[in-house]
Description:
Blueprint: H1 4-10, H2 13-18, H3 24-29, H4 35-40, H5 46-51, H6 57-62, H7 68-73, H8 79-84, H9 90-95, H10 101-106, H11 112-117, H12 123-128, H13 134-139, H14 145-150, H15 156-161
Amino acid sequence: MCVVSSLISLCSPHKLLRDETFHLHKLLRDETFHLHKLLRDETFHLHKLLRDEIFHLHKLLRDETFHLHKLLRDETFHLHKLLRDETFHLHKLLRDNTFHLHKLLRDETFHLHKLLRDETFHLHKLLRDETFHLHKLLRDETFHLHKLLRDETFHLHKLLRDETFHLH
């Protein structure tokens, strides 16, 4: 019986992946295998990797050939898996041009102060998002009101109209 690494060298990854007797974790456990070989294969669907019980998301995030929007576009992927990963930095998500902020805001595991603390995040992106309610920002204990007032895109009447905001 030959090892997985010799199998990979003999055939292209998609031939191996198409074989119904082959389990993806055999490939993932092989120390000679580089994840980008799998990611570059046009017949490979990302959700197969995400569903594999021995696969850790940070391996994917650390791969320099991997683009985050591929993960975000995958319909089987839940955003909180990314947010819970200790190696993941929020600004990578915010910099991705295919990512919409309301996906982050709708995630029940996400805390707004993580977004506010991120040095690459501009407050007006949050204010422009049509799904965001201002009182969520006002209720956040880490948020200082002067940040809101200094933002050039913010109109004071939005603050005054918010039913949770008290002028005193």
